[in-house]
What does this fold into?
Amino acid sequence: MIVPMFRKLLWGALLVAATSTHSVFAGPADVVGVEVTKSRPGVYNFAVTVRHEDAGWKHYADAWQVLGPNGMVLGTRELAHPHEHEQPFTRSLYGVEIEPGIASVRLRAQDKVHGYGGREVTVDLPQ
It folds into this structure.
């Protein structure tokens, strides 16, 4: 009687652990593609593709950023919901003002659990 009860408890604990830690195993959000266009002098539009194993509202890619020299944040695109069934996904940010003389920018994504830390991409700005 004790062994079957223990077995049920063990399987229950394993099930809870597997479902509750899934989001931890998703890893950080990666930038996997970037398209940048110049809309007018000093103003750029970005279409950024992000890959992340979104696991519901507690662990999903929730933003990406355009970074200039020395890590200065030039623009941020907030992501308002998980994209569990759309991977990778692309979202745009328009009208990012970038000072003359900056030739390239770095893009990074974050998720709710790990913050920033996944794959980043550096792109040259069109002239």
About this structure: The mean pLDDT is 83. Residues 9 and 123 are 52 Å apart (CA to CA).
